[in-house]
Each structure stands twice: as structure tokens, then as C-alpha cells.
């Protein structure tokens, strides 16, 4: 029989990770960091947080060993501590979706239009088939820094907020497959709605960059 106090200490150490994950905003920060390294200011702005609040959340994640930092000059950039953290985040989502009905309700309310209409999607294998056959243009609608950190090879980068003014850059006679951060990212949904409203043939990748990386698919990076 082992020492009960030592056993309790062991499980308390494991619980540090669970406690760090016990915040929706910290999960959102992990979601953003799964796309690539970011500064505190960038993370705060994208997640709708004040700098002090974002720093506190990042400190908690760092103390739990989930994120790490790199300093370049006066700028500190945060990154996931390892690919296993991205896998943990994805598995947490999967378990929550499998066992909590409220997750699907919340996801549907967030990703679909008010009338409940969803956008057409295709899987990873079908995207590759259509792209390789020249039947589709792959469109990355994430912000430019995320595209630079890693994207599907051959993808065209047009952030969602620039898409209305840059439609002419996309061929009118080829289907467009849009993708963004992951299965819970709304950007690709909104891109497909915008494109179809302008008469373009468009679908979205069912998942996103997080799942693409975890599936060990090829990734191109243009960041320095």
C-alpha cells in the first residue's frame, strides 16, 4: 500500500492542469494559440480581453505547463508548450460534446444563422481530392498572422473581413472551399454565406487548422 499523503499530492499535481482548463476564456486562448505563437496584446484583442486579464489567464496556463514563451526584443510571444496540448484541447472538446447536450446546443446557436440554416461542408479527403484535381480553390479566411504561422499548402489567404472587397481575386468558375481555425470556428461559415450570396459556389472544410495539424497533414509556414 502506498502512502496516502503522497498519493494525494500526486493527484493534486495532476489537478493543476484541470484547474487551468477550468475557464472558458483560457480555453479560447488555447484555441488561438493552436494556430501559432501570439503576443499578449494580440491574444487580448482577439479574445476580447483587457491586457491585465489576458496576462493573468496566460500566467495560469504557463504555471500549469500548458503554454511557454519566447522573447524577441521587448516582445514576449506565447505558444503551446507542445503538440500534446493541442491534442488535449481537441480531446476536451470531443468529450464535452459527447457527454454534454448543452455543447451541441451552444455550438449550433453560434455557428448557424438565426433560422438554423447550416452551411455545406466537406471532409479532409474530399478537399484534397478536389484541390488536386483542380476542381476547387482552397481559401484560408483566418487573420494573416495565423495563415503565416501555418496553412494548408496551396491555400489562398483572404481574411474574412477583407473578403467582400477582394472577391475579384477568386476565380468565378471554380468552387471555393473555405477553412478557418477549427470545428468551432465561425469564420469559414460566414465566408461560405458571403460567397454564396454573391453567386459563388462555396463549401467549407468540416474541421479546420487545428484538426488538420493533429491529423499530421502537410502544413506550409511563411512566418519568419
From TrEMBL:
<dbReference type="Pfam" id="PF01022">
    <property type="entry name" value="HTH_5"/>
</dbReference>
<dbReference type="InterPro" id="IPR036390">
    <property type="entry name" value="WH_DNA-bd_sf"/>
</dbReference>
<dbReference type="InterPro" id="IPR036873">
    <property type="entry name" value="Rhodanese-like_dom_sf"/>
</dbReference>
<dbReference type="InterPro" id="IPR001845">
    <property type="entry name" value="HTH_ArsR_DNA-bd_dom"/>
</dbReference>
<dbReference type="InterPro" id="IPR001307">
    <property type="entry name" value="Thiosulphate_STrfase_CS"/>
</dbReference>
<keyword id="KW-0805">Transcription regulation</keyword>
<dbReference type="GO" id="GO:0003677">
    <property type="term" value="F:DNA binding"/>
</dbReference>
<feature type="domain" description="HTH arsR-type">
    <location>
        <begin position="6"/>
        <end position="100"/>
    </location>
</feature>
<dbReference type="InterPro" id="IPR036388">
    <property type="entry name" value="WH-like_DNA-bd_sf"/>
</dbReference>
<dbReference type="GO" id="GO:0004792">
    <property type="term" value="F:thiosulfate-cyanide sulfurtransferase activity"/>
</dbReference>
<dbReference type="Pfam" id="PF00581">
    <property type="entry name" value="Rhodanese"/>
</dbReference>
<keyword id="KW-0804">Transcription</keyword>
<feature type="domain" description="Rhodanese">
    <location>
        <begin position="132"/>
        <end position="221"/>
    </location>
</feature>
<protein>
    <submittedName>
        <fullName>ArsR family transcriptional regulator</fullName>
    </submittedName>
</protein>
<dbReference type="InterPro" id="IPR051011">
    <property type="entry name" value="Metal_resp_trans_reg"/>
</dbReference>
<dbReference type="InterPro" id="IPR011991">
    <property type="entry name" value="ArsR-like_HTH"/>
</dbReference>
<dbReference type="InterPro" id="IPR001763">
    <property type="entry name" value="Rhodanese-like_dom"/>
</dbReference>
<dbReference type="GO" id="GO:0003700">
    <property type="term" value="F:DNA-binding transcription factor activity"/>
</dbReference>
<keyword id="KW-0238">DNA-binding</keyword>
Amino acid at each position: 500500500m502506498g502512502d496516502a499523503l503522497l498519493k494525494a499530492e500526486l493527484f493534486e499535481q495532476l489537478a493543476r492542469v484541470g484547474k487551468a482548463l477550468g475557464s472558458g476564456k483560457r480555453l479560447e486562448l488555447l484555441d488561438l494559440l493552436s494556430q501559432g505563437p501570439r503576443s499578449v496584446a494580440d491574444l487580448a484583442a482577439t479574445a476580447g480581453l483587457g491586457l491585465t486579464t489576458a496576462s493573468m489567464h496566460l500566467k495560469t496556463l504557463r504555471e500549469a505547463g500548458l503554454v511557454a514563451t519566447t522573447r524577441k526584443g521587448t516582445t514576449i510571444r506565447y505558444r503551446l508548450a507542445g503538440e500534446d496540448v493541442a491534442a488535449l484541447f481537441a480531446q476536451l472538446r470531443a468529450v464535452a460534446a459527447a457527454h454534454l447536450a448543452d455543447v451541441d446546443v451552444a455550438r449550433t446557436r453560434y455557428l448557424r444563422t438565426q433560422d438554423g440554416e447550416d452551411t455545406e461542408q466537406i471532409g479532409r479527403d474530399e478537399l484534397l481530392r478536389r484541390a488536386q484535381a483542380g476542381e476547387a480553390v482552397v481559401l484560408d479566411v483566418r487573420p494573416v498572422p495565423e495563415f503565416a504561422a501555418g496553412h494548408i499548402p496551396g491555400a489562398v489567404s483572404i481574411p474574412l473581413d477583407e473578403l467582400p472587397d477582394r472577391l475579384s481575386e477568386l476565380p468565378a468558375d471554380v468552387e471555393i472551399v473555405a477553412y478557418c481555425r477549427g470545428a468551432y470556428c465561425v469564420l469559414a461559415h460566414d465566408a461560405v454565406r458571403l460567397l454564396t450570396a454573391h453567386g459563388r459556389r462555396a463549401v467549407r472544410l468540416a474541421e479546420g487548422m487545428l484538426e488538420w495539424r493533429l491529423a499530421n497533414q502537410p502544413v506550409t509556414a511563411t512566418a519568419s
